[in-house]
UniProtKB/TrEMBL annotation:
<protein>
    <submittedName>
        <fullName>Peptidase S41</fullName>
    </submittedName>
</protein>
<dbReference type="Pfam" id="PF03572">
    <property type="entry name" value="Peptidase_S41"/>
</dbReference>
<dbReference type="GO" id="GO:0006508">
    <property type="term" value="P:proteolysis"/>
</dbReference>
<feature type="region of interest" description="Disordered">
    <location>
        <begin position="196"/>
        <end position="219"/>
    </location>
</feature>
<feature type="region of interest" description="Disordered">
    <location>
        <begin position="278"/>
        <end position="310"/>
    </location>
</feature>
<dbReference type="InterPro" id="IPR005151">
    <property type="entry name" value="Tail-specific_protease"/>
</dbReference>
<dbReference type="GO" id="GO:0007165">
    <property type="term" value="P:signal transduction"/>
</dbReference>
<dbReference type="InterPro" id="IPR029045">
    <property type="entry name" value="ClpP/crotonase-like_dom_sf"/>
</dbReference>
<feature type="domain" description="Tail specific protease">
    <location>
        <begin position="83"/>
        <end position="298"/>
    </location>
</feature>
<dbReference type="GO" id="GO:0030288">
    <property type="term" value="C:outer membrane-bounded periplasmic space"/>
</dbReference>
<dbReference type="GO" id="GO:0008236">
    <property type="term" value="F:serine-type peptidase activity"/>
</dbReference>
<dbReference type="GO" id="GO:0004175">
    <property type="term" value="F:endopeptidase activity"/>
</dbReference>
Amino acid sequence: MCVLAAGVGCSGGEASPPGRAMSDEARSYLSSALDLMEDNALRRGDVDWDEVRRTAFTEAGDAQRPSDTHQAITAALDKLGDGHSELFTPQRAQEMSGDEQVRQPVEGRALPGRVGYLSLPSARGSEKVLQQYVREGRDAVAKADRPNACGWVIDLRRNRGGNMWPMLAVVGPILGDGDVGSFVDADGKKTVWSIEKGSPRLDGDSTGWGTSPPVGGGSAPVAVLTSRSTASSGEAVTVAFRGRPDTRSFGEDTTGVPTGNARHRLSDGAILNLTEVKDADRTGRTYDSPIPPDQPVVDNPGRRGSRDPVLGTATEWLSEQPGCA
């Protein structure tokens, strides 16, 4: 998930191993990437940075171009142990911000018993693609709210991550206004996520998705569905519903990367996508591992015509809640 963006300059200070002729450009590039990791990584305190640097420069060997150091940078990221940090090559970085992102549609429909159903997939791509995601998602919420849903199912089982803010812009009217979570960095500093008039904010600042009126007063009961494929920003949405009154989760443990990444653009156009914060729910509980559901239910994906046990269990619970009973 994108927390912030930063440009990267070059800094020296490392010497290549004896007998190796690494270029100044490659040395500065690798050193800059390692500096970013040491200064900002969530788990920076768990790493022997002298050893990481020695190993990275040995692996980069006689690198001449920035791209020759990418493998060494990836290996250094792996040593952080967060399971979420990664390096995007310049080509991959360009593809990720393009208009040609293939994604599943946001699906909204009314279920029997006046239950609204919203399936929220991943959100990735250019500003144009993300704006379309929000419009489509809010239309899906309006469609599912007919006639005046008494409760909601938020299905995150296909959500592998991306940009969390369009997702929160879609579910914001269901979440209800107020603080819904936060990022917590390695020093314990909090940056609060909130909903105001159905739109997400970060430490009180708008994230730019426009307002949307609350659905059911923002207090209707909600069943959240998760699976082992629910990852990253999908887990952030899961966390946003944690601690909300009249809310229960069903399904399977999430992937286990409920953490926030900052995208640092390197000099060749590559992106160092670095895990810098944990997600925390509205009660202050932090997460950095798989999130178990309140009610475990074994999923039954991809079996056409067969009953969906997770959805069935969730709607049964909703049918017992005040207003739906």
